[in-house]
Amino acid sequence: MQNASANALVPREAARPAPMADIQKIAQHMARLNVAALPRNYELFHEAIVGLNASLAQDIAALGPQPQQPMLDELGLKYRLVGHCGLAGETSRNEASRMLRDVAERLAEGLKHKNAFARACGTILKSVSGHDDQSLAAFLSEVDYLTASLSTVLAAEMEIGARLQDDIKTLETLERGISAMQSAAIADRITGLPNRIALNRTIADLYEREEGAAGSALIMVDIDNFTDLNDKYGTQVGNKLLKKLAGLLQKSVKKNDFIARTEADEFALLFSNVGMQDAMTIAERLRSSVEDNLVFATSDKADPGRLTISIGVALSTDAATPGQLQANARVALLAAQSNPRLPVQAFGR
């Protein structure tokens, strides 16, 4: 087995455009449309241009030559992009904070009415106890005053109660919205799988456990020539294949294992309690299963209509940090991509 070392990065760089080229392409496109250089806008256009999301690209084009920011933000929410979900969550939290301030002000106002009523009761009590010769008319007048004060207090209490009920319902709606946004932020829109953010959190949690991260394997899967496939057959075909591949990969994981779609053409699987031999067996089985089952119709006689993948495998025992584990798996994946005869590679082996 070929050793997947850092020098495997060299041939792969020529195969995939450098990230800087993508950034420049996105920046130029945003500049032509006079779109503000905000992080969430970069994310939006990255998904449309680099992420090959044809539907999003069409929606952006439909906004015209100078799309307004609120319209772009609506698209970001529609496609559940992380930056826009975070923006919506922040807006919801701000609205909740405003409502809580209003509640505090209404409660303070109600307390003022109660204090005023208590003072009135004390004043009248002193008046009655200190004037034995007080007339019935004067007494009744003071009772009327107390009744009016009590009515004011009760009316204020009822208004506060009614508005609190409305506010509670609104807060519950906001809470559900925030929860939905948080879920959307860690889910891939096309396959429904967890995304890279979810993977990062899962690996970080793995390394924070008391027993440590030993005994886990990270397997990175890349679809060979996926960009060419999308260009040739369209993104709808590409998306269908992504969903089929996601379903196939899901069948390969157990309850305590984890799978995510991390890039347009990449998936990651995290297995617990496996060594390198078991991890390589799993990876080879995945490769064979994909090549045997993921086929698609094509009129091109030169194209067999068969999906192939490259796989990189790394063990947590070889990585001191979550970032190192992912970097090791990436090195192994790049080695596999640069050598079609050995499409499954292990880091350091």
From TrEMBL:
E.C. number(s) listed in UniProt: 2.7.7.65
Name of the top EC class for this enzyme: transferase
One term under GO cellular component: plasma membrane
Catalytic activity: 2 GTP = 3',3'-c-di-GMP + 2 diphosphate
Gene Ontology process terms (BP): cell adhesion involved in single-species biofilm formation; negative regulation of bacterial-type flagellum-dependent cell motility
GO molecular-function terms, A-Z: diguanylate cyclase activity
SMART domains: GGDEF
A Pfam family reported for this protein in Swiss-Prot or TrEMBL: GGDEF
Entries under InterPro entries matching the protein: Diguanylate_Cyclase, GGDEF_dom, Nucleotide_cyclase, Rev_trsase/Diguanyl_cyclase
Name this protein carries in UniProt: diguanylate cyclase
Domain GGDEF: 214-349
Family matches, as SUPFAM superfamilies: Nucleotide cyclase
